[in-house]
Q: What sequence folds into this?
């Protein structure tokens, strides 16, 4: 509850500051946090790697945009339809790939990500190819169109915190225990009555729903989408966000997302080479801070204190 | 048909792995409320059988019935839902959870609440969680771990982990509990605690089946036993009946008769031995594998190390080869302490190991497998020899290979065949040959006869003493104890990580009490009962 309060205070401060830049960062953080939360449920809690989550975000974005443009439906209708469809796609992908483990699962999901991206580029009639889709209608609440950062910020964050609370409920429920069991050992899961494959597929679908929700909000917020944000590089970024947060810990995902968004700003001068730096960061975190950057820094800090203390004692 | 039907019925179960018959027409019953032990030597098929019954593996033939319902072919979680829970070798606790969560997870599936309920912060999932928490504490009380409920499971000792696995099985609410080697690697105190818990489960209306190598523990707990050997049930009965059964004793000791002259015993007679192990101790994650083992191998001597499965034989070989680290004691080779030496440096000193299960490179040819065996020596001569061995290196590589081919002519015929296509016997020859390629002075063999037909095993074992003529000493680990004792000059009997007896193998072989010592029947029983009657030949180790 305290965390929600602190978060609300920070967001209120950003909102009141009136700085378009800060509000934009806050909105982007919320939109990235949704797929990152979904990935955390799948990877952190259920132990299944996915390198194709950017594609699910993209499917959510294209899905709602195409439905809104082709049929002229309200975004409030196209979003749930697109999300439900992506959840079904994710379930099917789960059905197909969860017979694989480890590196093979990583490769299969990576391939899915690449296939989907190629689809976004090549299905020009539907997706507009490299040019993308523009003129996507914005969401409207009580007659106010959510176009400006100032207008979308509260909505995006209410959705994000809602998703966060649901995820937290889930990991604390009996189903959450089952997920953590599957993550540690599928053989043990089977021996205590948990059906690992069915559970993995369900979490994959849920995770896909989170990703699609993030993508759909993004599409209606920007009003324009193109294939490039949904490439494998974005999957890698999502992975980094979850890894920085420490894989298991719903709130720490927000930390990871915030960290990546802020470093992203710092890395702007590097242009496309930022992916290299993200990659290096990911390797560093995986090798030295397997429990996340926060936990890693805490350990390093403790080690430093231990090293300094005897020195201080000697001086006295 | 109904009423008196056994709780679990296994009928004609058969499993094949390639050409190997892991289980062959296995059948037995488990009656409600009994404690039944499933025993048998290494490779008998116990784990395979457990996997079939619990749904982890599909049988090629046969049926399994639980409470009159056919369960073979069902997925593991469905079998668990019908009232059968199993544990795993090595406990397999969920290390990233607390002790309580481990047990709670076991009840999660039974709550009937899924992902959708879980997303909501109130309602069925919340109520189910509270119930799981209460139940978990009850189960933890049964095994005596309630005071550790909020400890991370990874912090438990090995004994506590096994108890946690038992509590987790209880947490599924199953009536039939199957434990896979619950006592392996535990101390006597821990085993006693475990035995008390298992015994108490009967009073709670549970039926227990357990696989165990410590026959002391088995004798203490089991009302009935089923003995497997080579995938077949060879005996069923009370512990006393089984213990006296000729076929059971043969299954454990082996019955291969070897026709070969023993090389003479050397160590202890004169000069310092080639290999001297003093008080070696090894622990795996808190489990005691070796507990103060002292052993010597002299030059050009054949020494056998025998003992039941899990006694620590392979661990000792790995400790000498440098694959596991000593927690205590010392290993000296040619008078040099090898503590700080990496495995490849020990190979250069002259230690060779033909590991358990052969570990051949299946996609390389016989010739290349042999060449790999010389890697450490070639590398030591400079990395360029790895690309193209030149000069002396090339010559000695050829010489070593010629020597191996001379020793095992069958390998020469198959030199360009892929190792994966060899028969079991040829594969074993190649494993030994590969170890010989580094020209070791000590050759350690881990279960060379495992999985081989008796005639093939005999052939390979009979060839071994000839190696001493090349100046090689042999430390032989064999499940087939009778055969090993017929080849070796001296032997050590390892029971639960300790040397229980040592001496000249002819005398050990003739001593009937040794059979019981070897089998470890006396293991967990009170001291002083029949134990001292071992006679002078049972040279007790301090």
A:
């Amino acid at each position: 509850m305290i965390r929600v309060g602190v978060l609300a205070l920070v967001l209120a401060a950003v909102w009141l500051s009136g700085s378009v830049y800060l509000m934009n960062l806050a909105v982007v953080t919320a939109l990235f946090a949704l797929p990152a939360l979904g990935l955390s449920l799948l990877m952190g809690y259920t132990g299944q790697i996915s390198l194709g989550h950017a594609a699910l975000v993209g499917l959510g974005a294209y899905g709602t945009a195409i439905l809104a443009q082709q049929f002229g439906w309200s975004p409030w209708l196209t979003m749930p339809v697109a999300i439900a469809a992506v959840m079904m796609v994710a379930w099917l992908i789960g059905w197909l790939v969860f017979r694989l483990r480890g590196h093979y699962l990583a490769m299969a999901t990576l391939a899915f990500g690449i296939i989907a991206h190629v689809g976004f580029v090549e299905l020009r009639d539907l997706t507009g190819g490299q040019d993308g889709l523009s003129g996507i209608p914005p969401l409207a609440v009580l007659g106010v169109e959510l176009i400006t950062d100032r207008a979308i910020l509260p909505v995006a964050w209410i959705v994000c915190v809602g998703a966060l609370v649901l995820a937290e409920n889930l990991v604390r429920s009996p189903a959450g225990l089952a997920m953590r069991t599957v993550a540690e050992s599928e053989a043990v899961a089977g021996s205590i009555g948990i059906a690992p494959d069915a559970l993995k597929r369900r979490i994959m679908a849920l995770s896909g729903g989170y990703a699609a929700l993030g993508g759909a909000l993004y599409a209606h917020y920007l009003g324009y989408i193109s294939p490039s944000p949904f490439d494998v590089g974005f999957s890698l970024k999502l992975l980094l966000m979850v890894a920085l947060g420490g894989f298991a810990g719903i709130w720490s995902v927000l930390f990871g997302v915030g960290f990546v968004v802020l470093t992203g700003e710092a890395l702007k001068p590097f242009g496309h080479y930022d992916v290299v730096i993200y990659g290096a960061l990911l390797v560093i975190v995986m090798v030295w801070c397997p429990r996340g950057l926060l936990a890693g820094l805490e350990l390093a800090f403790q080690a430093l204190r231990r090293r300094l203390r005897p020195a201080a004692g000697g001086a006295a | 048909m109904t009423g008196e039907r056994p709780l679990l019925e296994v009928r004609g179960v058969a499993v094949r792995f390639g050409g190997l018959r892991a289980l062959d027409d296995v059948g037995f019953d488990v009656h409600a409320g009994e404690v039944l032990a499933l025993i048998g030597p290494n490779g008998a098929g116990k784990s395979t059988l457990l996997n079939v019954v619990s749904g982890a593996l599909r049988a090629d033939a046969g049926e399994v019935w639980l409470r009159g319902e056919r369960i073979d072919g069902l997925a593991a979680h469905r079998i668990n839902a019908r009232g059968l829970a199993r544990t795993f070798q090595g406990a397999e606790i969920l290390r990233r959870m607390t002790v309580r969560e481990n047990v709670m997870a076991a009840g999660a599936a039974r709550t009937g609440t899924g992902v959708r309920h879980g997303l909501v912060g109130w309602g069925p999932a919340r109520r189910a969680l509270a119930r799981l928490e209460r139940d978990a504490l009850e189960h933890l009380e049964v095994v005596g771990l309630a005071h550790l409920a909020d400890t991370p499971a990874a912090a438990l000792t090995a004994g506590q982990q096994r108890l946690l696995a038992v509590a987790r099985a209880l947490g599924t609410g199953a009536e039939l509990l199957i434990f896979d080697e619950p006592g392996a690697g535990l101390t006597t105190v821990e085993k006693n605690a475990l035995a008390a818990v298992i015994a108490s489960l009967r009073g709670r209306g549970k039926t227990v089946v357990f696989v165990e190598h410590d026959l002391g523990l088995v004798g203490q707990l089991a009302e009935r036993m089923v003995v497997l050997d080579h995938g077949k049930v060879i005996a069923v009965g009370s512990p006393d009946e089984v213990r006296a059964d000729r076929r059971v004793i043969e299954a454990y000791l082996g019955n291969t008769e070897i026709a070969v002259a023993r090389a003479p015993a050397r160590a202890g007679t004169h000069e310092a031995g080639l290999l001297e192990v003093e008080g070696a101790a090894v622990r795996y994650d808190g489990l005691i594998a070796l507990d103060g083992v002292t052993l010597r191998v002299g030059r050009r001597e054949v020494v056998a190390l025998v003992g039941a499965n899990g006694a620590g034989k392979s661990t000792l070989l790995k400790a000498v080869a440098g694959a596991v680290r000593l927690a205590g004691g010392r290993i000296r080779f040619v008078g040099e302490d090898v503590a700080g030496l990496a495995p490849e440096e020990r190979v250069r000193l002259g230690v060779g190991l033909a590991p358990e299960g052969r570990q051949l490179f299946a996609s390389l040819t016989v010739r290349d497998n042999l060449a790999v065996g010389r890697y450490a020596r070639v590398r030591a001569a400079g990395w360029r020899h790895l690309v193209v061995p030149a000069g002396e290196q090339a010559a000695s590589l050829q010489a070593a290979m010629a020597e191996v081919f001379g020793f095992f002519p069958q390998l020469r015929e198959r030199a360009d065949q892929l190792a994966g296509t060899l028969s079991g016997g040829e594969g074993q020859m190649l494993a030994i040959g590969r170890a010989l390629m580094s020209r070791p002075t000590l050759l350690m063999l881990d279960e060379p006869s495992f999985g081989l037909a008796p005639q093939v095993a005999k052939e390979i074992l009979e060839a071994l003493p000839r190696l001493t003529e090349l100046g090689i000493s042999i430390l032989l680990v064999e499940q087939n104890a009778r055969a090993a004792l017929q080849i070796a000059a001296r032997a050590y009997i390892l029971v639960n990580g300790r040397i229980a007896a040592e001496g000249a193998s002819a005398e050990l072989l003739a001593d009937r009490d040794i059979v019981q010592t070897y089998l470890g029947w006396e293991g967990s029983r009170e001291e002083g009962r029949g134990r001292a009657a071992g006679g002078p030949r049972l040279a007790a180790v301090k």
In short: The first strand of chain B starts at residue 8 and ends at 17.
